[in-house]
């Protein structure tokens, strides 16, 4: 089967890699360098399993800049282009997704579009009515940064936004390419599937915010956060997972998805969803206040990335903390080996860790590792368990 994948970020590239083991896959992107890298089997994103498959597997995968080449004769066209939250408009910017939809319509081809990008609730229904089409459905992804292909090989569940033969055919493509057996597959209308995606990510943001606020309370009151979390999480209904305090939730999905869900709540009663969104700002305010109170001369930021095994720092919580510290007049420098720039967000980027260490009198660390263990006495972190 020929399958096209539009967009080669975490979602698109992991799916293209997964499906190209048993199918012909054409990956479409608008960035020439990414296309060349994929065709040379060099992953443009940091993902252990994608890198492993690129080296070890014989993949029927080709990347292209030409959408007509990609879409021609494709039985399924997976749309995984970025949908960032537009703060001004108060909604996701879905223009990249709609652009792909219009290109497919203009080609007049017999295919099924499957949107994997995160979209507002009601988007698929709106597209069907706007363009008078029926060959489109939504299937949410549930992937972790740096573990995207692994999460496709061993999915927690597969949800397809349609109850039809083609929906089953698409689900079969995913299950047949996965390594996990007996995968839970759920079929529902696309509007409900869109809601599942936003509510799932907002719950995860809620859990992060909950343990962060627990940690804030313990820090302010001089209590042992570790003991409190251990005691709380002994309740099997709560569980000892996803409970490590941080500087806030961030990354590709949680900040924008929580805001989008809140926007979807217009004219619907709620208190909790808005609180989850506000809680993240409150946490960053608290972290910055704790740093400012120490009156350091130079604050060093150790890594902008959100978690270990990832090279992504888009919307990382530490960036909000940096802005708050800088506004108080304290000098901030950054150690981030994945950055090519000399300056980021008005802060000097230091390439040498030894030089970075010498220049700082206090170092902010969202997630501990062996480098900063050596300067622990100067480190401010809320990382309790040395894991994400």
Describe the structure in your own words:
The protein is an alpha/beta fold and 388 residues long. The protein folds into 2 domains: 2-188, 3-Layer(aba) Sandwich (Rossmann fold); 197-380, NAD(P)-binding Rossmann-like Domain (Rossmann fold), CATH 3.40.50.720. The chain has 15 helices and 16 strands. The protein has helices at residues 10-19, 32-39, 48-56, 67-71, 95-107, 123-131, 148-153, 165-177, 190-221, 225-233, 254-264, 272-293, 317-327, 353-359, 370-373, and strands at residues 2-6, 24-28, 61-64, 76-79, 85-86, 91-92, 112-115, 136-138, 158-160, 185-187, 298-302, 331-335, 343-344, 347-349, 362-365, 379-380. The two termini are 38 Å apart.
Instruction: Give the overall form.
Output: globular
CATH homologous superfamily of the largest domain, by name? NAD(P)-binding Rossmann-like Domain
Structural class call reads: alpha/beta
Give the mean pLDDT: 94
* The CATH class of the largest domain: Alpha Beta
Tell me roughly what share of residues is in helical segments. Answer: 40-55%
Q: Please give the CATH architecture of the largest domain.
A: 3-Layer(aba) Sandwich
How would you sum up the major sheet? 6 strands, parallel
Q: Which range does the strand content fall in? A: 5-15%
Contiguous helical run count: 15
